[in-house]
Amino acid sequence: MATTSDIRNGLCIKHNGDLWTVVEFLHVKPGKGAAFVRTKLKNLNNGKVVDYTFNTSAKIESVRIETREYQYLYNDDMGYHFMNSDTYEQVAVPKHQINAPDFLKDGLVCTVMFHADEDSVLSVDLPSHVEAEITYTEPGVKGDTATNTLKPATTDTGVEVKVPLFISTGDWIKVDTRTKEYTERVKK
Q: Which domains does the chain have, with CATH numbers?
């Protein structure tokens, strides 16, 4: 059993019969009254995010997890299929357990989090940035470059991203998978 002082981002705990991961936390010590820990927890079974407050005297049950590198293969009605490059073991993962399924491309290497005791998949994390090709965007108007104006663009995976005016169809860009924001243009 752990205590609330062990809470940190990414910690996996068992709470109210479900598995949760800590998205963010804050230790609060008010001037009057007892201290407490305010957390934002993500349910690993259905993806729901809730706010929960722990008293500092509360005991929490931490869960032992393992992370492994898996390569994305394809998706079908069974889920999204990933393969371990070393053992060629394949796992099917439901969409709600993947942090940004819209950016998945064949061959993308992702980090899969497993429950160590049960050897079951808890979640799949894509790399923080992926490269994508722009399949459609309106052409930029010459002379509109004085401001940081953004325009919509569609990537090769179908995700719509706001990009600067100088980006055109066929360009490759780097996108942040956590925020779905344009980061930079990539030379190919």
A: 2-62 (2.30.30.30), 65-125 (2.40.50.140), 129-186 (2.40.50.140)
